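Sequence only, no structure available. Ideas?
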Amino acid sequence: MATYKALKGLSIQTVAGDPSNLAAGDIWYDSVARKVQGAKLGSDAWANSNNMNTARYGVGSAGTQTAGLGFGGDTPTPAVVDIAEKYNGSSWTETGDLNQARYNMAGMGTQTAGFAVAGDATLVVAETFDGTNWSEGPDISTGRNVLAGAGTTTAAIVFGGTPGGKDETEEWDGSSWSEENDLNTGRRQLGGAGTSTAGLAFGGGPGNKDETEEWNGTSWTAQNALNTARNSLAGSGIQTAALAFGGSYNRTEKYDGTSWTETADLSTSRGALGGSPAGTQAAALAFGGTPPITAATEEFTGAAIEAVTFTSS
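Reply:
I predicted one. Tokens follow.
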């Protein structure tokens, strides 16, 4: 039988434990475990975390997986609320309320610099969060709900929404809103990710849409479609490394700047959920949503390189 060296031209390295920098395909002999080990790429996965204090859908979101922010929404009562909650990577804590109760708004920014824009039928009100309190700022030009957004409290865009399926885009420069070039496909209940100069719009309605568009700071360009057409979904990450999840289905897809790839499904199927606009493709947060109206929270962890032991067969 040929040896590994004869096949590969290399000897298996002996290491006490695991190598410090693993790469998929590495093979070594662990002198501590006295076993031949290898490295492989693991799997993407969602894991359940602690529920929000208030179950709701149409919830606005900002922040990351370990520092999230959820605000507004509609509850089982039913009642549109102004409640805001912070997530610390483990549990939720109530914080300062929105000035205007609403749902189906665009949410952007971080836990300490969050942005809530429009929502609740044709609301035009925008509010910023400083980590403790919300402050009303200049209104957007076109009132709408179930819209999406991308960016921060000093540089943001909002796009799409309803009534109908709007194509309008507005840009925030930190002091005022200005109308910009429209989406190629007007829609509502769409997902968003990225920044004010490198944004991403995907999915939406009416019905279930799979269209994807990239924003370059001036105009929108159509890109490869989602694998699963859907509306009422959430997002995380940047234009070249985004995550789309939930909506009409519990599917999750990863975008690499060119195309979408399906990956691990959410544990709780839901739409109109919150996400992690300032998060990444490898570390995202999902919370709230419907049906039924839920407070469920899940964390997404991207695949990592892991060590495995070779066994005889």
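The chain has a mean pLDDT of 92.
Hope that gets you unstuck.
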